[in-house]
UniProtKB/TrEMBL annotation:
Main enzyme class: isomerase
Pfam families: Amdase
A GO term, aspect molecular function: maleate isomerase activity
InterPro entries (UniProt xref): Ectoine_EutA, Iso_Racemase_Enz_sf, MaiA/AMDase
Protein's UniProt name: Ectoine utilization protein EutA
Keywords attached to this entry: Isomerase
Assigned EC number: 5.2.1.1
Presence of keyword Transmembrane: no
Amino acid sequence: MTVEIEIIAAGRPPRLEDRPLEKRIGLVILATDHTTEVDFQRMVAGARLGVYVSRIHYANPVTPENLLKMQPSLTEGAALILPDEALDAIVYSCTSASVVIGDRNIEAAIHAAKPGVPVVTPTAAAVTGLKALGARRISVLTPYTIETSRPMADYFAELGFAIDRFTCLGLTDDREMARIAPDEILAFARQALAPQSDALFISCTAVRAAEVAAGIEAEIGKPVVTSNLATAWACLRLCGDDGARPELGQLMTKSYREG
């Protein structure tokens, strides 16, 4: 038996707001990424700020050649984030690929889909963060091989940083990088810091270093910048959130200045 149910049209259309949330950040991340989304939900997303994600193809192992292969996917990846709508910032969340592809090339590829949006890379955000902390001498810890670490060492040196110690863990699979235990990150961070360095940079958006950055700082007595901590900080500041959150690390107490 069919029951006829009366459906009534409302007498007026609903009032629409300009945006569901006041600010919105896009993330272009690797298909294999376990960490960036989790970190951004923990550090960035909130009642006024939404985080929207697009994944692009990536095939291990982590080598300069494989990292470079992602460049053609960046425009399409960015275009799939809230199509035809503006973003307040967009992150390409791969540190080693940012070095190989180049910050400016990444910005150009993303602007082809999202013109005018501020583009954040882990490398550029880390540089800005280290400068905000007053660091000129740094130590660096990466999960990569020597081959993949070499371009990163050159990147920081060419930007004027003195690298006192550069340590790499020799991994080639970003999924394994995501499984490095937090206490192991702390242990390797202790070893990676040269006493004369002003700060320690821990590379790789896959590594769960942001969640232990403040704890590492307490152990080593120096500021710590990680890939995801740096991009989260940059995005918050670009969205007008200047609140100090020292529980996340010293970087989250600093103002953001581009350039």
